[in-house]
Each structure stands twice: as C-alpha cells, then as structure tokens.
C-alpha cells in the first residue's frame, strides 16, 4: 500500500486517519491542499511529510507561475512559508523544503524555462532517495538483532511513514529478509493510536507476527522478559544525539534502561539537525485538545476538561544504545561520532 502517489501533477495521499477501517486517498491539486493534509495528519511520519511537502512545492510552482520573475519569486515565498508552517518538529519537512528552495532559486537565477519540470524531478529524487536510504537503514539495523528476537516499537515508523519501506519497521523487514525470526510488540500510541491503527495493520498485511499492547503495558511486558530490543523512529535528532519522537518514546527509553534492553533509534541522516546542540532546543508541537478528549469523534472525557497534548517528547542521548542511519550505526559518544558520520 503506497502512502504517496504522484502522477500527472496530482498528489494522492493515503488518508492515514481512517486506517484500518477505510482505505481512501485524498487528491491534492494545490499547495494549500498539501499543507492541510500535512497539518491534519492525512500524511504523517517525518520522511513522508518531507516528500509530500516537496510535491507541494511543485504544485505551488505550477499554480503561482508568472513570467514576471519578481512576482513569481514573491508567490513562491508564500508557498514555502505555508508548507513550512504545517508541522514544527519534523526536521525532514524543512530539509526537503530547503532542497526544493535551492533548486527553485538556482533555476530562477539561470532563467531556466523548465523550472517546474526541474522542481518535479527534484521531488521525485527526494522520494526515490528516501526509499534507498530506508533500505540502507534496514540493512545496517538488521545486523544488530539476534537471529531470534522480539522487538517493541512505538507509533508507526514503517512504510506508511516513508516512501514505502520504513525506518524502525524497515529494520524488522530487513531482518526477516535475512532469515531472522522476528516478532513484534506494538504500543497502541495514544492519543491518535498510530501503533494500533497503522503499525499493527501494516505488519499484519505483511504477515509479520505482531502483538498489540496499550502504552501502559510496556513496562510490565519488559519485566516479563518478553522484549529483546526496542526500535523507534525519529522526527528530529540534535547534534548531541538527543532525539524527538512520538510522545511516549521517552518513557520507553527509561523503562528500557531499567530493564537493560537495547534502545535503538532508526532514522535517515536527513533527520539530524546539527544546528541545534541538544534536545532542549527542539520545538515540540502541541496539538488539539480534542485529540485527547475524543476517539473517532466519540467523547471519552468531560467536554471542558483541561488537556495537555504535546505530540512529541525528547529522549536524552544517555538512554539511547545506538542510532541506526543510512550511513551506518552511530554509537556513544554521540556528539563526537555524529560529527564523524557527517
């Protein structure tokens, strides 16, 4: 199942809010359509957000094109700003937009008449690169897992969150391709249930052994010695290795440390933000309070109860065993070794 389909200057995004109950694609014909889909989490997962934004730039360029270079540039500034404002934490969004912006200004300065085609080619390249990088992450990560093991994961860092293979789940897929016997425990991941709705659905579709648990069961499952490793994705990684990921990841890292279970981050190198020193500088998105008060539009809490709903938390580098990237596996001391991997 493809989360992102680009064809004939139309972007079709799998509406991940509806899975696994309904499989439906939303057609985006403008950059505003794409921005709304990113903001409302029709498309989610850091790599997939970046890819969708890149195609949003292509749609935007086609939409606001002008033979007047000054006017065209001004219009495109609005396109870039609109897409950049959708999700503040996932650095892949800004990485992809930076690439598209560089391509745009290079073509504009060189009076290239095929500017929209060049932007489309760049977006396609970002898509294809992500698939290749995910396969490399899987290749490196699979070697870290025993021939027979059970992996706990959180949220969805699989094919649905990327161009089609996955980061954390890509490691699991690659390990199985190598002939290893892998079972998975998936946290349900409140409040939007990405683990229950997406990861369980994705793994079952691939015939991979998966057991769903609620988030508050993770510690007990570790205590029962049912987990051999934990692998999660990432939305932004600071220069010192501190990592922002879906809310609940930090708690897992603390539990993993207590139970001496290896805790791995799997992410492409584009997820690193070397401009920030630590996780304290990572902006954390807070989402609608209704996401917590309701499930599928059914109220489960008092209507006016106060809610705190950060979408991400930050796992400190001392809780991380290793970071699996497309360039290799990074071990502590992270600050030094991330520089070497650059």
Structure, explained:
The protein has 342 residues and is α/β, with parallel strands linked by helices. The protein is built from 11 helices and 16 strands. It has helices at 31-39, 46-64, 69-84, 91-109, 115-142, 168-177, 194-205, 218-223, 249-258, 290-293, 334-341; strands at residues 4-7, 10-14, 25-28, 148-153, 181-187, 210-213, 229-232, 236-238, 243-246, 263-266, 272-273, 294-295, 298-299, 312-315, 322-325, 328-330. Strands 6-5-4-7-10-15-16 form a 7-stranded mixed beta sheet, sandwiched between helices. A 4-stranded mixed beta sheet has the order 11-8-9-14, with helices on one face. Strands 1-2-3 form a 3-stranded antiparallel beta sheet, with helices on one face. Helix 4 packs antiparallel against helix 5. The two termini are 33 Å apart. The model has no long low-confidence stretch (mean pLDDT 97).
